[in-house]
Structures are given as C-alpha cells and as structure tokens.
Fold:
Amino acid sequence: MRVDPTDTGGLFIGRRPGTRPIRYRALPERGSRARRRIDDALAAALLVLEGLVSLSFWGPLPAAWLWVGSHVQFWTGSVSAGILSAFAGLLATLLVGLVICKRIDHAWILVRRAAGHDQREGVMGRVFGVTCAVGAVIFVAWFLLFSGSELAPMGIQGP
Structure:
C-alpha cells in the first residue's frame, strides 16, 4: 500500500479526484530549428510577463489600493472603511495575481516542452523569490534615499 502523501494527494486512504501526479509518456518531439527559436522566444516572453506580474505585488498593487482606500476614507469619512477596503481589495488582487502567475507558469511549461526541452516543473517559486529580493532592494533604496525619513541623507529629503 502506498502512503506517500505525494502519491495519495495528502490522504492515506486514497486519492482525491484530479490529484494524480502528471506523468509524461515520452520526451517531447523536437520541431524544426525555426520552430524551436519561436517557442524559446515565446517562453522567454512568458517568463518576463510572469516576472512583471509578480513584481507588481511589491509596489504598484499596494500603492494603488492605498490610493483607493484613501478615497474611500474621504467619501465615507471613516478611516476604518478606508483601511478595510484597501486591505480587502489588496488581498483579493494578490490572490487573483497568483492565479494569473500560475496559469502563465503552466503555459511556460507547455511552450518549453513544445520547444523540445524536457520541462516538467515550473519556475513560479524562483520567479517569486527573485522578485521578492528585487522588490526589497528597491524599497530599501527608496526608503533610505527618497522617503524623507530621518535616515535619508540631508540633501535629498522629500517635502
């Protein structure tokens, strides 16, 4: 009896429907040289798109929802309503963004296989890790140099 959680879908009595690991029959067929180049370029474009979506989690989306929350606060006169709307909207947007990233990652796997690579796993985790590091570096640079904080150099403080 197999009891490995990766084989049983996390249950020891059987597998949940649709949780079987993907098994590829054979190595992907290699197309012509031009077809492989097109597929490799498309895979690179999908990887860049996935990186941009993931990087948007660390700046543009939170800033946009803070802006929306400030408008909700102005319209309602309630700070709590502004904070709640910004938090709920950001959480929903981040979850939708993760779904989009997962679909792009799955498409990237398929395009890489179409290009003749034996691609079995995605790169979503690595892309997310890299964008976390890039977002942290950009935030620290902004905070130390341009935010107007006490740590910023005297010559370039904000208003």
User: Anything to note?
Assistant: The first helix runs from residue 5 to 8.
